[in-house]
Structure formats: C-alpha cells, structure tokens
Amino acid sequence: MPIRANALAIMAKAPIAGTVKTRLQPFLSAEEAADLARALLLDQLHHLRAIETVDLYVAFTPLQEEALMKQLVPAPFQLFLQSEGDLGARMQNIFSALFAKEYKNVVLIGADLPPVPLDYFAQAYGYLDGPEPRAVLGPSRDGGYYLVGLNRPMPAMFENMIWSHDQVFIQTVTKLADLGIESRQLPIWFDIDTPDDLQILMTREDDRQNVSMKNTLNLLRHLEGRRRHETTKPV
User: Do residues 105 and 150 touch, judged by C-beta distance below 8 A?
Assistant: First the structure.
C-alpha cells in the first residue's frame, strides 16, 4: 500500500553528453547540454521536495546509468526504470506501475522544465479527486504538454499517437473527449528545448524562479560569461 493517496513521477533521462538536450546543439556543446540537463533535474528535484502530501518518484532511462541516477536523485524520491517503447508507451507504463501500487491519483511531468509552480500540482490533484474518470493536462508553449495527471489507468489515451510536434496537446484533448473522459487544462508552462527557450528563461523576471533554479541559472550565467571572455580574447 502507498504511504499517501497521490503519487508524482518525473520522467528523466540520465544527463549524458550526446544523448540529452540535442536540440540545443550546436548552440551548446554536447557537454554543456548535458550539464544543463543535470542542473534542470537537480533544481526540479529540490523544488518538488517541498510537496509533502504526495509520494515522489523518478522514472529514469537508460538502465546502464542507474548508478549515476542514484547519485543524483535524493530521498524521498523513489527511483525506477522506464519501459521500452515510444513516449506514449513509456508514460502509460509509468501510470500502470503506480496505479498498481494502489495510488488514487497519479501526476507525471518531465525533468527538463523550469520548476513548475507548486500550486499547479494542487490544482491537478484537486481536479482528479473525483469518482468519474478524469485527466488533467498542462499545455506547454511548444504545443505539447508538460504535465499529465490521471485518476485511473487510461491506456487508450496514449495509443496511436504521433509525438514531438506542435499539435500533441490539441490531439490529446480531442482524444480524451472522444473517449468520454473529462479533462481540465492547467496554466501554460514551457520546456527548455531550444535556444529561444533559454532566452525566455534568462529574461524572465520571477523571484520564485531565481530561488528555485539556482543550479540552472548559475550554469547559464557561467556559460554566458565564458562566451563573452572567449569573444574578447586577443587573436
């Protein structure tokens, strides 16, 4: 039996150069992109530890980086391996694994986000806490979604989907309606996938962000300072 009624899981890929944040290259080197992925994950984990009303999980990939992930992921997060398959299959398997532990409501987010405001999670769990099948989605600026929450397994939601394009959110909402499942939309948020996303992050005036993203912002300032130094070096 779970400790609490609700679970929150983060989908995370081990921050290994050449395998993460590849859309940021060549703006960032492979090593810098991996450093960024690591910083985003650490900030998200630290941020979410403030939620004391849910059980916390990290679903990671790949298997051969389990030792690294154990070093990065602190208590009270519980670590488990993602399944094989496309994004939909992996998300569905995470939901299935956690509902099998008898959680009432399960929320899933990505690791490569600016820390999601904690009140968004309160909104998500509040909506899911009903007797009928419900889903909650957090739309991202790129047309996908940064958060998905369910109050029971819904495998059909993830089947026959094409991922990584700007209509994923709209198509998911349509599919839920076709399945007769009530859904609610959270406020929009954004991933860090492109140089434009980095620019948005660096120019946002948000005191909460400055507190919750210390690793990421310190890294970006360091990289910016290094680039300025390199462009002013005598030749």
Answer: yes
